[in-house]
Specification:
The protein is α+β, with helices and mostly antiparallel strands. It contains five helices and seven strands, in the order H-E-H-H-E-E-E-H-E-H-E-E. The N terminus is likely disordered.
Length: about 200
């Protein structure tokens, strides 16, 4: 697994994320997309195994941008992405041949576990994450799933309101994996949305 470098003297997190994104290439080829040029709505499709490497890179770049303040490890590796494809599926948002967003769906009993919602850091807050969520919820309804479960990290204070506005409610907490070392204490907050 690739380990991210620590921020250099005074390097801003956004600049570092862009440097890492360029280095590890989100899709072929990586390019910076100003948010004003993002077409709406972007097409969404189900991933194939051929997409696994680009998915891995996108997730790690996006989560490094969002989670670098409390954890240095990559969020996922290629093997884990392939395993998630075997047990569920990834939905992808693309701009031409450029992967700009993804989310994982895994059937669990009568529900769906939704995870790894990721958007290219250069175009976050452009509506791609919300579009992926809507598509994921509709896909789960079509499969007769009764609810969607998500886990968010307690120190990601920006996330609860995003999901609450979408109809998710907090249901409890879970411990953060002990094998992952964090810079500050954290745990998971579990949330659920009933699909009607």
């Amino acid at each position: 697994m690739i380990r991210w470098q620590a921020f250099s003297n005074g390097e801003k997190q956004k600049d570092a994320s862009n440097r890492w994104a360029s280095q590890f290439k989100i899709g072929p080829p990586y390019r910076r997309l100003p948010s004003m040029t993002v077409p709406s709505p972007l097409p969404i499709r189900v991933a194939t195994k051929a997409d696994a490497e680009a998915i891995t890179n996108l997730i790690n770049v996006a989560f490094r941008r969002a989670e670098g303040f409390f954890i240095e490890d990559d969020r996922i590796d290629l093997h884990s992405v392939v395993q998630l494809m075997d047990t569920g599926e990834f939905l992808l948002a693309q701009d031409g041949d450029q992967l700009v967003g993804c989310v994982s769906l895994e059937p669990r009993g009568e529900g769906t576990y939704l995870g790894l919602l990721s958007v290219d850091p250069t175009i976050q807050q452009s509506g791609i994450g919300s579009r992926l969520m809507s598509f994921a919820e509709e896909r789960s309804r079509e499969r007769q799933r009764k609810f969607i479960d998500i886990y968010i990290v307690s120190v990601r204070v920006d996330l609860p309101n995003f999901y609450k506005k979408r109809g998710y409610v907090e249901t409890g907490t879970l411990p953060f994996p002990t094998e992952l070392q964090t810079k500050i204490p954290c745990h998971f907050i579990t949330m659920k949305k009933v699909l009607v």
